[in-house]
Amino acid sequence: MAVRSFKYVIVGGGVSAGCAAREFAKQGAKPGELAITSKEAVAPYERPALSKAYLFKEGFARLPGFHVCVGSGGERLLPEWYKEQGIELILSTEIAKADLAGKAFVSAPGETFKYQTLLIATGSTVCKRTVASLGTFMESMHVIIKLTAFKVQRAEAKNIFYLRDIVDADGLLEAIKAKKNGKCVIVGGGYIALVLGAALKINYLDVTMVYPEPWCMPRLFTADIAAFYEGYYSNKGIRIVKGTVAVGFTAHDNGEVKEVHLKDGRVLEADIVIVGVGGRPLTALFKGQVEEEKGGIKTDTFFKTSVPDVYAVGDVASFPLKRARCLCCGLSTSTMLATSVLIQAIKAAEEGKTVEEYDYLPYFYSRSFDLSWQFYGDNVGDTVLFGDNSPTSAKPKFGTYWIKEGKVVGAFLEGGAPEENKAIAKLAKFQPQVETVDQLKAEGLNFAIKYEAVKFVKLLVYYRCD
Ligand SMILES: Cc1cc2nc3c(=O)[nH]c(=O)nc-3n(C[C@H](O)[C@H](O)[C@H](O)COP(=O)(O)OP(=O)(O)OC[C@H]3O[C@@H](n4cnc5c(N)ncnc54)[C@H](O)[C@@H]3O)c2cc1C
Protein backbone atom coordinates (compact mmCIF):
# COMPACT_ATOMS: atom_id res chain seq x y z
CA MET A 1 0.00 0.00 0.00
CA ALA A 2 1.10 3.53 -0.79
CA VAL A 3 2.69 5.91 1.69
CA ARG A 4 1.69 9.54 1.27
CA SER A 5 3.44 12.43 2.97
CA PHE A 6 2.14 15.90 3.74
CA LYS A 7 3.44 18.85 5.69
CA TYR A 8 0.12 19.21 7.51
CA VAL A 9 -2.56 16.58 8.00
CA ILE A 10 -5.95 17.01 9.62
CA VAL A 11 -7.61 13.82 10.86
CA GLY A 12 -11.36 14.40 10.72
CA GLY A 13 -13.38 16.30 8.14
CA GLY A 14 -15.93 18.23 10.16
CA VAL A 15 -16.50 21.83 11.20
CA SER A 16 -13.00 22.35 12.63
CA ALA A 17 -11.26 20.78 9.63
CA GLY A 18 -13.12 23.06 7.21
CA CYS A 19 -12.41 26.19 9.24
CA ALA A 20 -8.77 25.14 9.64
CA ALA A 21 -8.41 24.62 5.87
CA ARG A 22 -9.74 28.12 5.29
CA GLU A 23 -7.22 29.60 7.72
CA PHE A 24 -4.34 27.52 6.28
CA ALA A 25 -5.19 28.95 2.85
CA LYS A 26 -5.33 32.47 4.32
CA GLN A 27 -1.95 31.96 5.95
CA GLY A 28 -0.45 30.99 2.62
CA ALA A 29 -0.19 27.19 2.82
CA LYS A 30 1.13 25.97 -0.53
CA PRO A 31 -0.65 23.50 -2.84
CA GLY A 32 0.08 19.93 -1.80
CA GLU A 33 1.05 20.84 1.78
CA LEU A 34 -2.29 20.10 3.47
CA ALA A 35 -4.44 16.97 3.49
CA ILE A 36 -7.74 16.34 5.28
CA THR A 37 -8.68 12.72 5.92
CA SER A 38 -12.35 12.19 6.66
CA LYS A 39 -14.58 9.22 7.34
CA GLU A 40 -17.45 11.09 5.70
CA ALA A 41 -18.15 11.10 1.97
CA VAL A 42 -18.70 14.86 1.70
CA ALA A 43 -16.63 17.99 2.24
CA PRO A 44 -16.84 19.63 5.70
CA TYR A 45 -20.30 21.01 6.47
CA GLU A 46 -22.06 22.82 9.31
CA ARG A 47 -23.10 19.90 11.51
CA PRO A 48 -25.60 21.91 13.65
CA ALA A 49 -27.81 22.27 10.55
CA LEU A 50 -28.58 18.54 10.72
CA SER A 51 -30.88 18.92 13.70
CA LYS A 52 -32.45 22.15 12.42
CA ALA A 53 -32.85 23.35 8.82
CA TYR A 54 -31.99 19.93 7.38
CA LEU A 55 -35.18 18.58 8.93
CA PHE A 56 -37.45 21.52 8.12
CA LYS A 57 -40.56 20.79 6.09
CA GLU A 58 -40.18 23.98 4.09
CA GLY A 59 -37.12 26.04 3.27
CA PHE A 60 -34.93 23.12 4.22
CA ALA A 61 -31.14 23.14 3.92
CA ARG A 62 -29.29 20.73 1.65
CA LEU A 63 -25.68 20.45 0.59
CA PRO A 64 -23.92 22.30 -0.94
CA GLY A 65 -25.92 25.04 0.83
CA PHE A 66 -24.36 24.55 4.28
CA HIS A 67 -20.75 23.66 3.71
CA VAL A 68 -18.37 25.18 6.25
CA CYS A 69 -17.91 28.11 7.04
CA VAL A 70 -21.38 29.62 6.45
CA GLY A 71 -22.49 28.89 10.03
CA SER A 72 -19.93 31.25 11.50
CA GLY A 73 -20.38 33.95 8.89
CA GLY A 74 -17.51 32.90 6.65
CA GLU A 75 -17.41 31.89 3.01
CA ARG A 76 -18.91 28.57 1.86
CA LEU A 77 -16.14 26.14 0.99
CA LEU A 78 -17.35 23.91 -1.83
CA PRO A 79 -15.38 20.78 -2.81
CA GLU A 80 -13.95 22.75 -5.76
CA TRP A 81 -12.46 25.28 -3.37
CA TYR A 82 -10.20 22.61 -1.82
CA LYS A 83 -9.07 21.59 -5.33
CA GLU A 84 -8.32 25.20 -6.28
CA GLN A 85 -6.25 25.62 -3.13
CA GLY A 86 -4.35 22.36 -3.71
CA ILE A 87 -5.74 20.92 -0.47
CA GLU A 88 -6.18 17.14 -0.64
CA LEU A 89 -9.62 16.19 0.59
CA ILE A 90 -9.37 12.47 1.24
CA LEU A 91 -12.99 11.46 1.83
CA SER A 92 -14.64 8.18 2.80
CA THR A 93 -11.38 7.25 4.52
CA GLU A 94 -11.47 6.17 8.13
CA ILE A 95 -8.20 6.32 9.99
CA ALA A 96 -7.77 3.07 11.86
CA LYS A 97 -4.38 3.39 13.54
CA ALA A 98 -2.25 6.30 14.68
CA ASP A 99 1.42 6.29 15.59
CA LEU A 100 2.17 9.72 17.00
CA ALA A 101 5.79 8.87 17.85
CA GLY A 102 6.40 7.77 14.25
CA LYS A 103 4.41 10.73 12.85
CA ALA A 104 2.22 8.43 10.76
CA PHE A 105 -1.20 6.85 10.66
CA VAL A 106 -2.93 4.21 8.64
CA SER A 107 -6.38 4.21 7.04
CA ALA A 108 -8.79 1.30 7.31
CA PRO A 109 -7.90 0.07 3.78
CA GLY A 110 -4.19 0.17 4.77
CA GLU A 111 -2.87 3.41 3.25
CA THR A 112 -0.15 5.11 5.33
CA PHE A 113 -0.07 8.88 5.80
CA LYS A 114 2.99 10.69 7.12
CA TYR A 115 2.96 14.23 8.43
CA GLN A 116 5.17 16.93 9.92
CA THR A 117 2.33 18.60 11.82
CA LEU A 118 -0.88 16.84 12.80
CA LEU A 119 -4.19 18.41 13.69
CA ILE A 120 -6.60 16.08 15.46
CA ALA A 121 -10.20 17.08 14.70
CA THR A 122 -12.11 13.83 15.07
CA GLY A 123 -14.96 15.51 16.97
CA SER A 124 -17.18 13.44 19.19
CA THR A 125 -19.33 10.41 18.88
CA VAL A 126 -22.86 9.87 20.09
CA CYS A 127 -23.02 8.55 23.58
CA LYS A 128 -24.77 5.22 23.35
CA ARG A 129 -24.22 4.59 27.04
CA THR A 130 -27.81 5.02 28.13
CA VAL A 131 -29.04 2.52 25.66
CA ALA A 132 -26.03 0.24 25.88
CA SER A 133 -26.35 0.13 29.65
CA LEU A 134 -29.81 -1.25 29.25
CA GLY A 135 -27.89 -4.50 29.80
CA THR A 136 -29.44 -6.27 32.73
CA PHE A 137 -32.94 -5.11 32.01
CA MET A 138 -32.69 -6.10 28.37
CA GLU A 139 -31.43 -9.51 29.36
CA SER A 140 -34.44 -9.99 31.57
CA MET A 141 -36.63 -8.69 28.74
CA HIS A 142 -35.21 -11.41 26.53
CA VAL A 143 -36.32 -13.97 29.05
CA ILE A 144 -39.77 -12.43 29.25
CA ILE A 145 -39.94 -12.22 25.50
CA LYS A 146 -38.94 -15.80 25.05
CA LEU A 147 -41.70 -16.72 27.44
CA THR A 148 -44.30 -14.59 25.75
CA ALA A 149 -43.06 -15.21 22.20
CA PHE A 150 -42.78 -11.52 21.44
CA LYS A 151 -39.81 -10.42 19.43
CA VAL A 152 -37.47 -8.02 21.17
CA GLN A 153 -34.57 -6.21 19.64
CA ARG A 154 -32.00 -4.05 21.27
CA ALA A 155 -30.91 -0.64 20.24
CA GLU A 156 -30.24 -1.90 16.70
CA ALA A 157 -33.97 -2.02 15.87
CA LYS A 158 -34.76 -0.09 12.70
CA ASN A 159 -35.83 3.55 13.08
CA ILE A 160 -33.79 4.14 16.23
CA PHE A 161 -31.56 7.07 15.38
CA TYR A 162 -28.44 8.68 16.81
CA LEU A 163 -27.97 11.89 14.89
CA ARG A 164 -24.32 12.60 14.24
CA ASP A 165 -23.74 12.94 10.53
CA ILE A 166 -25.50 13.48 7.25
CA VAL A 167 -26.04 9.75 6.70
CA ASP A 168 -27.92 9.57 10.02
CA ALA A 169 -29.92 12.67 9.07
CA ASP A 170 -30.89 11.16 5.71
CA GLY A 171 -32.03 7.98 7.48
CA LEU A 172 -34.14 10.06 9.84
CA LEU A 173 -35.68 12.01 6.95
CA GLU A 174 -36.65 8.76 5.23
CA ALA A 175 -38.29 7.53 8.43
CA ILE A 176 -40.15 10.83 8.89
CA LYS A 177 -41.56 10.43 5.37
CA ALA A 178 -42.46 6.78 5.88
CA LYS A 179 -44.04 7.29 9.31
CA LYS A 180 -46.13 10.36 8.52
CA ASN A 181 -48.29 11.30 11.54
CA GLY A 182 -46.63 8.51 13.50
CA LYS A 183 -45.27 8.47 17.04
CA CYS A 184 -41.77 9.60 17.92
CA VAL A 185 -40.03 9.10 21.26
CA ILE A 186 -37.00 11.25 21.98
CA VAL A 187 -34.70 9.77 24.60
CA GLY A 188 -32.91 12.62 26.32
CA GLY A 189 -33.68 16.15 27.42
CA GLY A 190 -30.55 18.00 26.41
CA TYR A 191 -29.50 20.42 23.72
CA ILE A 192 -29.99 18.24 20.65
CA ALA A 193 -32.99 16.38 22.08
CA LEU A 194 -34.90 19.66 22.52
CA VAL A 195 -34.15 20.85 19.01
CA LEU A 196 -35.11 17.48 17.55
CA GLY A 197 -38.34 17.36 19.56
CA ALA A 198 -39.40 20.59 17.86
CA ALA A 199 -38.20 19.45 14.41
CA LEU A 200 -40.21 16.22 14.60
CA LYS A 201 -43.29 18.05 15.84
CA ILE A 202 -43.03 20.45 12.90
CA ASN A 203 -43.04 17.33 10.72
CA TYR A 204 -46.40 16.38 12.26
CA LEU A 205 -45.17 13.53 14.40
CA ASP A 206 -46.68 12.85 17.78
CA VAL A 207 -43.67 13.53 20.01
CA THR A 208 -42.87 12.32 23.54
CA MET A 209 -39.61 13.26 25.26
CA VAL A 210 -38.21 11.12 28.08
CA TYR A 211 -35.44 12.12 30.46
CA PRO A 212 -34.40 11.26 33.98
CA GLU A 213 -33.59 14.76 35.23
CA PRO A 214 -36.11 16.97 37.05
CA TRP A 215 -35.97 19.46 34.15
CA CYS A 216 -34.53 19.74 30.65
CA MET A 217 -30.93 20.79 30.03
CA PRO A 218 -30.07 20.85 33.73
CA ARG A 219 -26.37 21.41 32.99
CA LEU A 220 -27.19 24.87 31.70
CA PHE A 221 -30.79 25.76 32.46
CA THR A 222 -32.08 26.77 35.87
CA ALA A 223 -35.45 25.33 36.93
CA ASP A 224 -37.09 28.65 35.93
CA ILE A 225 -35.58 28.68 32.43
CA ALA A 226 -36.48 25.03 31.90
CA ALA A 227 -40.06 25.58 33.11
CA PHE A 228 -40.58 28.01 30.24
CA TYR A 229 -39.35 25.59 27.53
CA GLU A 230 -41.19 22.62 29.02
CA GLY A 231 -44.39 24.68 29.17
CA TYR A 232 -43.90 25.93 25.63
CA TYR A 233 -43.26 22.41 24.30
CA SER A 234 -46.33 21.09 26.16
CA ASN A 235 -48.44 23.82 24.58
CA LYS A 236 -47.19 22.65 21.19
CA GLY A 237 -48.47 19.17 22.03
CA ILE A 238 -45.17 17.53 22.99
CA ARG A 239 -45.50 15.16 25.95
CA ILE A 240 -42.70 15.28 28.48
CA VAL A 241 -41.98 12.29 30.72
CA LYS A 242 -39.46 13.13 33.43
CA GLY A 243 -37.73 11.20 36.20
CA THR A 244 -37.30 7.96 34.30
CA VAL A 245 -35.17 6.45 31.55
CA ALA A 246 -35.68 4.25 28.54
CA VAL A 247 -34.47 0.77 29.35
CA GLY A 248 -35.47 -1.31 26.37
CA PHE A 249 -37.25 -1.58 23.06
CA THR A 250 -39.48 -4.04 21.33
CA ALA A 251 -39.63 -4.38 17.57
CA HIS A 252 -42.10 -5.48 14.93
CA ASP A 253 -41.42 -8.59 12.89
CA ASN A 254 -39.92 -6.41 10.16
CA GLY A 255 -37.32 -5.17 12.65
CA GLU A 256 -38.79 -1.67 13.07
CA VAL A 257 -39.04 -0.30 16.56
CA LYS A 258 -42.46 -0.71 18.14
CA GLU A 259 -42.22 0.30 21.80
CA VAL A 260 -39.95 1.99 24.27
CA HIS A 261 -39.93 0.49 27.74
CA LEU A 262 -39.30 2.87 30.62
CA LYS A 263 -37.68 2.03 33.92
CA ASP A 264 -40.82 2.98 35.81
CA GLY A 265 -42.75 0.30 33.93
CA ARG A 266 -44.47 2.50 31.40
CA VAL A 267 -44.42 1.52 27.75
CA LEU A 268 -44.53 4.11 24.96
CA GLU A 269 -45.52 3.23 21.41
CA ALA A 270 -42.98 4.45 18.88
CA ASP A 271 -42.53 4.46 15.11
CA ILE A 272 -39.33 6.47 15.43
CA VAL A 273 -36.95 6.76 18.39
CA ILE A 274 -34.21 9.35 18.56
CA VAL A 275 -31.54 8.90 21.19
CA GLY A 276 -30.03 12.26 22.07
CA VAL A 277 -28.08 11.65 25.22
CA GLY A 278 -24.92 13.63 24.53
CA GLY A 279 -21.57 13.00 22.97
CA ARG A 280 -18.10 11.83 23.92
CA PRO A 281 -14.82 13.14 22.41
CA LEU A 282 -13.46 10.67 19.83
CA THR A 283 -10.03 10.04 21.33
CA ALA A 284 -9.78 6.26 20.88
CA LEU A 285 -7.26 6.45 18.01
CA PHE A 286 -4.77 8.25 20.20
CA LYS A 287 -5.31 6.48 23.55
CA GLY A 288 -2.13 6.15 25.58
CA GLN A 289 -0.16 8.29 23.13
CA VAL A 290 -1.30 11.75 24.20
CA GLU A 291 -2.36 13.28 27.49
CA GLU A 292 -6.11 13.45 28.08
CA GLU A 293 -8.21 15.52 30.46
CA LYS A 294 -11.94 15.43 31.19
CA GLY A 295 -12.42 12.85 28.44
CA GLY A 296 -10.84 14.98 25.70
CA ILE A 297 -7.31 15.49 24.41
CA LYS A 298 -5.63 17.99 26.70
CA THR A 299 -4.33 21.12 25.00
CA ASP A 300 -2.89 24.44 26.07
CA THR A 301 -4.38 27.76 25.00
CA PHE A 302 -2.67 27.37 21.60
CA PHE A 303 -4.27 23.93 21.11
CA LYS A 304 -0.91 22.16 21.47
CA THR A 305 -1.19 18.65 22.90
CA SER A 306 1.39 16.88 25.06
CA VAL A 307 3.03 15.49 21.87
CA PRO A 308 5.28 17.79 19.82
CA ASP A 309 3.79 18.91 16.49
CA VAL A 310 0.39 17.49 17.38
CA TYR A 311 -2.54 19.85 17.91
CA ALA A 312 -6.19 19.14 18.75
CA VAL A 313 -9.24 21.33 18.22
CA GLY A 314 -13.03 21.19 18.33
CA ASP A 315 -15.09 18.63 20.20
CA VAL A 316 -12.14 16.29 20.71
CA ALA A 317 -10.06 18.89 22.55
CA SER A 318 -10.12 19.94 26.18
CA PHE A 319 -8.64 23.40 26.41
CA PRO A 320 -8.44 25.69 29.41
CA LEU A 321 -10.88 28.56 29.77
CA LYS A 322 -9.99 31.79 31.48
CA ARG A 323 -13.48 32.84 32.43
CA ALA A 324 -15.25 29.62 33.28
CA ARG A 325 -14.72 26.68 35.54
CA CYS A 326 -14.62 23.92 33.01
CA LEU A 327 -12.17 22.76 30.47
CA CYS A 328 -14.20 23.15 27.41
CA CYS A 329 -14.76 20.66 24.65
CA GLY A 330 -15.51 22.79 21.61
CA LEU A 331 -18.78 23.88 20.15
CA SER A 332 -19.21 24.81 16.53
CA THR A 333 -19.85 28.42 17.54
CA SER A 334 -16.25 28.83 18.64
CA THR A 335 -14.62 26.84 15.91
CA MET A 336 -13.78 29.53 13.38
CA LEU A 337 -12.08 31.70 15.98
CA ALA A 338 -10.33 28.73 17.59
CA THR A 339 -8.98 27.36 14.33
CA SER A 340 -7.76 30.82 13.28
CA VAL A 341 -5.73 31.08 16.46
CA LEU A 342 -4.51 27.51 16.08
CA ILE A 343 -3.30 27.83 12.49
CA GLN A 344 -1.73 31.21 13.22
CA ALA A 345 0.05 29.54 16.18
CA ILE A 346 1.34 26.71 13.95
CA LYS A 347 2.57 29.18 11.34
CA ALA A 348 4.10 31.49 13.95
CA ALA A 349 5.90 28.54 15.61
CA GLU A 350 7.49 27.68 12.25
CA GLU A 351 8.96 31.18 12.21
CA GLY A 352 9.96 31.12 15.88
CA LYS A 353 7.23 33.63 16.76
CA THR A 354 4.22 33.50 19.06
CA VAL A 355 0.62 34.66 18.79
CA GLU A 356 -1.79 36.01 21.36
CA GLU A 357 -3.49 33.43 23.59
CA TYR A 358 -6.97 32.25 22.64
CA ASP A 359 -9.38 33.81 25.12
CA TYR A 360 -12.67 32.04 24.49
CA LEU A 361 -15.88 33.28 26.02
CA PRO A 362 -18.15 30.23 26.40
CA TYR A 363 -21.16 30.70 24.15
CA PHE A 364 -24.13 28.46 23.45
CA TYR A 365 -27.17 29.13 21.34
CA SER A 366 -30.17 27.24 20.16
CA ARG A 367 -33.28 27.69 18.08
CA SER A 368 -36.49 25.67 18.01
CA PHE A 369 -40.00 26.53 16.86
CA ASP A 370 -39.95 30.34 16.84
CA LEU A 371 -37.74 30.50 19.92
CA SER A 372 -34.11 31.45 20.04
CA TRP A 373 -31.75 31.77 22.98
CA GLN A 374 -28.15 32.63 23.66
CA PHE A 375 -25.95 32.10 26.69
CA TYR A 376 -22.52 33.54 27.45
CA GLY A 377 -20.05 32.97 30.27
CA ASP A 378 -20.37 30.61 33.19
CA ASN A 379 -23.52 29.33 34.90
CA VAL A 380 -22.28 29.36 38.45
CA GLY A 381 -23.42 31.23 41.59
CA ASP A 382 -26.72 32.93 42.42
CA THR A 383 -29.24 33.57 39.69
CA VAL A 384 -31.64 36.38 38.86
CA LEU A 385 -34.51 35.82 36.45
CA PHE A 386 -35.96 38.79 34.56
CA GLY A 387 -38.58 39.43 31.88
CA ASP A 388 -41.63 37.60 30.67
CA ASN A 389 -41.11 33.84 30.87
CA SER A 390 -44.72 32.78 30.54
CA PRO A 391 -44.92 29.93 28.00
CA THR A 392 -48.27 31.27 26.86
CA SER A 393 -47.01 34.77 26.03
CA ALA A 394 -47.37 35.88 22.43
CA LYS A 395 -43.78 37.14 22.46
CA PRO A 396 -41.88 35.70 25.42
CA LYS A 397 -38.66 37.48 26.25
CA PHE A 398 -36.71 36.76 29.40
CA GLY A 399 -33.27 36.11 30.72
CA THR A 400 -31.13 35.11 33.66
CA TYR A 401 -27.91 36.46 35.15
CA TRP A 402 -25.48 34.35 37.17
CA ILE A 403 -23.68 36.23 39.93
CA LYS A 404 -20.56 35.00 41.70
CA GLU A 405 -18.62 36.95 44.30
CA GLY A 406 -20.56 40.11 43.41
CA LYS A 407 -19.83 39.86 39.67
CA VAL A 408 -22.07 38.92 36.77
CA VAL A 409 -20.33 35.85 35.33
CA GLY A 410 -23.01 34.48 33.00
CA ALA A 411 -26.05 35.70 31.09
CA PHE A 412 -28.87 33.96 29.21
CA LEU A 413 -31.45 35.59 26.97
CA GLU A 414 -34.46 34.16 25.15
CA GLY A 415 -35.95 36.21 22.32
CA GLY A 416 -33.21 38.85 22.27
CA ALA A 417 -32.52 41.17 19.34
CA PRO A 418 -28.95 41.03 17.95
CA GLU A 419 -27.85 44.14 19.87
CA GLU A 420 -29.33 42.76 23.09
CA ASN A 421 -27.46 39.49 22.63
CA LYS A 422 -24.31 41.50 22.06
CA ALA A 423 -24.97 43.37 25.31
CA ILE A 424 -25.29 40.20 27.40
CA ALA A 425 -22.13 38.81 25.75
CA LYS A 426 -20.22 41.95 26.82
CA LEU A 427 -21.53 41.57 30.35
CA ALA A 428 -20.28 37.99 30.57
CA LYS A 429 -16.96 38.98 29.06
CA PHE A 430 -16.20 41.94 31.32
CA GLN A 431 -17.93 40.54 34.43
CA PRO A 432 -18.96 43.85 36.05
CA GLN A 433 -19.45 44.18 39.80
CA VAL A 434 -23.09 44.50 40.89
CA GLU A 435 -24.15 46.52 43.91
CA THR A 436 -27.10 44.35 44.86
CA VAL A 437 -28.93 41.43 43.35
CA ASP A 438 -32.11 43.52 43.70
CA GLN A 439 -30.62 46.06 41.30
CA LEU A 440 -30.25 43.32 38.68
CA LYS A 441 -33.76 42.09 39.32
CA ALA A 442 -35.19 45.57 38.94
CA GLU A 443 -33.22 46.51 35.83
CA GLY A 444 -33.34 43.16 34.02
CA LEU A 445 -32.10 43.38 30.44
CA ASN A 446 -31.59 47.15 30.87
CA PHE A 447 -28.65 46.39 33.13
CA ALA A 448 -26.81 44.80 30.18
CA ILE A 449 -27.87 47.49 27.73
CA LYS A 450 -26.79 50.28 30.10
CA TYR A 451 -23.48 48.55 30.71
CA GLU A 452 -22.84 48.25 26.98
CA ALA A 453 -23.65 51.95 26.52
CA VAL A 454 -21.43 53.06 29.41
CA LYS A 455 -18.52 50.97 28.15
CA PHE A 456 -18.95 52.49 24.73
CA VAL A 457 -18.88 56.05 26.14
CA LYS A 458 -15.77 55.20 28.17
CA LEU A 459 -14.05 53.90 25.05
CA LEU A 460 -14.94 57.08 23.14
CA VAL A 461 -13.56 59.29 25.93
CA TYR A 462 -10.39 57.23 26.01
CA TYR A 463 -10.03 57.51 22.27
CA ARG A 464 -10.46 61.31 22.35
CA CYS A 465 -7.94 61.78 25.19
CA ASP A 466 -5.52 59.68 23.29
C1 LIG B 1 -27.09 17.10 15.33
C2 LIG B 1 -26.14 18.09 15.92
C3 LIG B 1 -26.57 19.39 16.21
C4 LIG B 1 -25.69 20.32 16.77
N1 LIG B 1 -26.13 21.58 17.04
C5 LIG B 1 -25.27 22.51 17.53
C6 LIG B 1 -25.68 23.86 17.76
O1 LIG B 1 -26.84 24.20 17.57
N2 LIG B 1 -24.76 24.76 18.20
C7 LIG B 1 -23.45 24.40 18.42
O2 LIG B 1 -22.65 25.25 18.80
N3 LIG B 1 -23.03 23.13 18.24
C8 LIG B 1 -23.91 22.18 17.79
N4 LIG B 1 -23.49 20.89 17.58
C9 LIG B 1 -22.11 20.55 17.89
C10 LIG B 1 -21.20 20.89 16.74
O3 LIG B 1 -21.67 20.32 15.54
C11 LIG B 1 -19.82 20.41 17.06
O4 LIG B 1 -19.36 21.12 18.18
C12 LIG B 1 -18.86 20.63 15.89
O5 LIG B 1 -19.29 19.89 14.77
C13 LIG B 1 -17.45 20.22 16.30
O6 LIG B 1 -16.61 20.25 15.19
P1 LIG B 1 -15.43 19.18 15.08
O7 LIG B 1 -14.71 19.50 13.84
O8 LIG B 1 -14.69 19.11 16.36
O9 LIG B 1 -16.17 17.76 14.95
P2 LIG B 1 -17.14 17.25 13.84
O10 LIG B 1 -17.79 18.35 13.10
O11 LIG B 1 -17.99 16.23 14.48
O12 LIG B 1 -16.16 16.52 12.81
C14 LIG B 1 -15.43 15.38 13.13
C15 LIG B 1 -15.09 14.66 11.84
O13 LIG B 1 -14.10 13.67 12.07
C16 LIG B 1 -14.44 12.51 11.36
N5 LIG B 1 -13.76 11.38 11.98
C17 LIG B 1 -13.89 10.92 13.24
N6 LIG B 1 -13.09 9.86 13.43
C18 LIG B 1 -12.43 9.67 12.28
C19 LIG B 1 -11.45 8.74 11.85
N7 LIG B 1 -10.99 7.78 12.64
N8 LIG B 1 -10.99 8.82 10.57
C20 LIG B 1 -11.44 9.79 9.73
N9 LIG B 1 -12.35 10.70 10.09
C21 LIG B 1 -12.84 10.64 11.35
C22 LIG B 1 -15.96 12.47 11.47
O14 LIG B 1 -16.52 11.60 10.53
C23 LIG B 1 -16.27 13.94 11.21
O15 LIG B 1 -16.29 14.20 9.82
C24 LIG B 1 -24.36 19.94 17.04
C25 LIG B 1 -23.92 18.62 16.77
C26 LIG B 1 -24.81 17.70 16.21
C27 LIG B 1 -24.34 16.30 15.92
Structure, explained:
Helix content is 29%, strand content 27%. The chain is of the alpha/beta class. It has three domains: 3-125 and 280-350, FAD/NAD(P)-binding domain, CATH 3.50.50; 129-277, FAD/NAD(P)-binding domain, CATH 3.50.50; 370-465, Enolase-like, domain 1 (2-Layer Sandwich). Strands 1, 2, 3, 4, 5, 6 and 19 form a seven-stranded mixed sheet that branches. It has a five-stranded parallel sheet with strand order 8-15-9-10-11, with helices on one face. Strand 12 and strand 13 form a beta hairpin. Helix 1 runs parallel beside helix 8 (332-350) and helix 9 crosses helix 11 (445-465). 41% of the residues are buried. The structure holds flavin-adenine dinucleotide. Flavin-adenine dinucleotide (FAD) is lined by residues 11-17, 37-40, 47-48, 50-51, 94-95, 121-123, 163-164, 192, 282, 285, 314-316, 330-333, 335, 366.
Gyration radius from CA atoms, angstroms: 24 Å
Shape: globular
Each distinct ligand: flavin-adenine dinucleotide
- Derived structural class: alpha/beta
Number of domains: 3
Average of per-residue pLDDT values: 87
How would you summarize this macromolecular structure in one to three sentences?
The termini are far apart. Strands 1, 2, 3, 4, 5, 6 and 19 form a 7-stranded mixed β-sheet that branches. The chain has a 5-stranded parallel β-sheet with strand order 8-15-9-10-11, with helices on one face.
